[in-house]
Amino acid sequence: MTITGGCACGKVRYTIEGEPVVTRVCWCRACQFTGGGNTPVNAVFKTEDVKIEGALADFVSEADSGNQVHRRFCPTCGTPVTVQSEARPQYLGVRAGTMDDPSAVKPDMTIWISAAPPWAIFDDTIPCYEHGLPPPGKK
Ligand SMILES: [Zn+2]
Ligand SMILES: [Zn+2]
Prior knowledge:
Elements: E1 2-6, E2 13-17, E3 22-26, H1 29-35, E4 41-46, E5 50-53, E6 57-62, E7 68-73, E8 80-85, E9 91-95, E10 109-111
Parallel strand pairs: 3-10
Antiparallel strand pairs: 1-2, 2-5, 3-4, 4-9, 6-7, 7-8, 8-9
């Protein structure tokens, strides 16, 4: 499968050759900031499968797991594009909303529902987890 996408202004573009290892709706507090209220869908690929053109800015913060997490975004339009944990550099999460066809991936699970606001709506056709995070590869 080939997936293309990029940020809203077009300065950052990517091509992915491969299937997502796992695709997750994530309600952790950090993801809520990038989602603007609702929350992002993160499709996790092998890092080597993703080729990115254009410069991304990088915001690094410590996750509840204690790992350093890199959230990269377009410095021009602010679109959040990728998320990656230093503990698992072999995997790269791509925000599904940045794909040219956002229906190219489909969530396998919802995580961190304990951090979601009471009005959040969860897809009850896929597993929901109170916290994170089965490591990628284990669905
Ligand atoms: Zn942009
Ligand atoms: Zn998250």
